[in-house]
Amino acid sequence: MEKTQRPAAPPSKAPPRAKPGAKLIPWLLRPGNRLLVFTQEALNRIYTPALNPLYFLGSITFLLFWILLGTGTYLYLFYEMNPVKAYESVRYITEDQRYYGGIIRSLHRYASDAMIIVIGIHIAQVFFSDRFRRYRWVAWVSGAAILPVIWFEGVSGYFLVWDQTAQMIAIKSAELLNALHINADPVERNFLTNDSINSLLFFVMNYLHLALPCLMLVVVWVHCMRISMPLINPPGPLGWTLIAGLVALSLVKPAVSGPPADLSRLIVEAPIDWFFLAIFPLVHELDLSPGAAWLWGGAAYLLFTLMPWVIREPKKNSKPLTTVPSTAITVNQDLCKGCLMCQLACPFEAIQVFDSGDPERARAIVAPNRCAECGFCVTACEFGAISMGEWTKASFQNHIERLFAAENGGPAPATMAFVCERAFDQTAFYTADRSRLAFNPGVAAMVVPCIGMVSPPLVEYAERAGAKGVVVVGCRALDCHYREARRRLNLHTSKDRALFLVEKMEDPNLLVLHVSPLETERLKESINQFHERINQEVAP
């Protein structure tokens, strides 16, 4: 559990396994989500949350892409783009330039394999953390569109080596293409003869291998365009460790070509890269006809692409009652001053402030299909122009005042706790009216969709309303459902950071906790210790 203040140390014994995965996640994803949480926490103990690779899969993919682009550019300086000299030019790079060109070729090979692995893990993480539906469907569908592009880029790369593996790719691909009846004659008659390959096919494969990265960048832009300030670079230690690992692997097990292709001979067995070429032995082992392979493969890909609509929203009665429910965002145009604060706060660029040139006419507009209903903009608005259902900034302040009002009966709370509804399973965590913590009635509670709603001015207001201390409890850093921690990383050098980041407040009476779903008991202990310290400090 990450802390920005230092309460007494939590107990050293391991906490009991709380049920991770809030009821906000569809039941079909909960077993996988539970495994994902356990895996993330295991890696947090090894790497620390600040360097956990699972929190930087997207930026690691970008790093691998730049490695592939750089190494590929070098390889093409020496590559002969024709079927007669292709094999020898690759052999020259691999053997005659063993300790620079050979390493670069191996880096190119292993970076492409690593990209497939990282993307596979990224897909599993996004899927089981339920971050692909509703306002995130564009990212999922565009990500699905990237997959065949990356696969063909890898297959074409192996083809260009023109060894026996490339020969196997050419023959098996021709068999699969014949099932589409693109041409009256079999594909191999047009491009493959008994002892040679048509130069046109070789040119097309070369062209596609060079052009596809450009297409990939366009699709990646679509993939990221609805995310405010996406992370595209991993932390330095993590990035350099990855590069060092790839270089070490390239030295220990360099990538080499197989025997040269010979179309006059039948290939019985050829080495393959299981990350890119597994489809060919899979079709063979399953004894699928080319037509059946296209049918089943297309159906699986279509189902994968449509997952945002296949997986349904959890039933309403399974969603825990929150103090501030997520609902549609609206803007009161009569109160809006076009100050840009809501636009800066939104993590998904769902709010745009349109300026007609007249400051008095600048207004904020919400795009409902992009809105995550996280509520960041509600408390960021200084004029109370934005509301989430019945909740405005004034509603927040009034609710806090009622929590500390004397007429509530019983002892007045000393501490205010803002808790993210997704941080952990909160069953039996609050009193029946959800106004206090069940294990410590001296702490008033307010459950919010995300701690991104808790701005520094809101913390200061809680202290003015009577709170002697304020606790803010959110998801593990970099694992926020609304990407709040990622947005904060990009704002840490901004002059406006004090407007959003409670972690940056110099307030000894503020405790910010980023917790795992497995740390419920430690969380309770930390809150109790903070509450006790606050009471002791203010005691006469």
Helix content: 40-55%
CATH superfamily of the largest domain: Cytochrome Bc1 Complex, Chain C
- Number of domain modules: 3
Q: What is the alpha-carbon Rg in Å?
A: 28 Å
- Please tally the helical runs, counting DSSP H or I stretches of 4 or more residues: 18
Order of helices and strands: EHHHHHHHHHHHHEHEEHEHEEEHEHEH
- DSSP summary, beta strand count: 10
Please, what is the average pLDDT?
A: 83
**Percentage of β-strand residues:** 5-15%
In the CATH scheme, the class of the largest domain would be Mainly Alpha
- The CATH architecture category of the largest domain equals Up-down Bundle
The CATH topology of the largest domain is what? Cytochrome Bc1 Complex, Chain C
* Termini separation: 32 Å
The stretches of 5 or more residues where confidence is low (pLDDT under 50) are 5-22, 489-494
Task: Kindly report the spatial arrangement of strands forming the biggest sheet.
Answer: 1-10-9-6-8-7
Sheet/helix structural class: alpha/beta
